[in-house]
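Hey, sorry to bother you again with one of my protein questions. A protein chain has come my way and I'm curious about its shape. I'm sending you its amino acid sequence along with the backbone structure tokens. I owe you a coffee for this, so here goes:
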Amino acid sequence: MRTKAEIISRLTDPGIIAVVRAQTRAQVLPLTEALIAGGVIAIEITMTTPDAIAAIREAVLKFGNRAIIGVGTVLDRETCHAAIGAGAEFVVSPVCRTELVGIASPKDRPIMLGAYTPTEAQTAYEAGADFIKIFPADGLGPNYIKSIRAPLPHLRIVPTGGVDVHNVADFFNAGCAALGVGSSLVSAKLLQENNWAGLTQKAEEFAKAANRARRPKA
């Protein structure tokens, strides 16, 4: 079993976390394979996916040695327990559910709590969150992240919403630890068409953009 430090290292290198809202449970395995083939190994299976817990269990069994499989959209303690029991290696909530820290941390699983304001972000950090999910980040952008991190540089921020292949570098330059990428990577159109080759291509674009952005400046 990976340690929390090992999981965090993989979540932040190259730092693209695919936020998966699959339309069916059957899509989870092929889309996971497609993402891994494109270089995206951090995969957050949200609880909005049908039979999400079973899908997580299947993905962990098949890809656990090649990817980091986590759970997203966790809103309560029961879901958190069930997902970790199914093998989820990290836990993400879109809101500041501080009670989830006491479930994930003893299991050595990183947890990401949602926040929108600096106060919420610091509250999540003080509760023990390993990452702060700035959500929704669509209308905020990299400058907002930079502004938060000026007085709060200790926060490991992961914006979700509004991240696309063209602003990956801007977000990393603003100090983000990783980026949560949903529909601009795993789009509804790709899912409707079961276009796994197209998903691999998208994943490659994001992985390359992240690697370029994280490369040490000369």
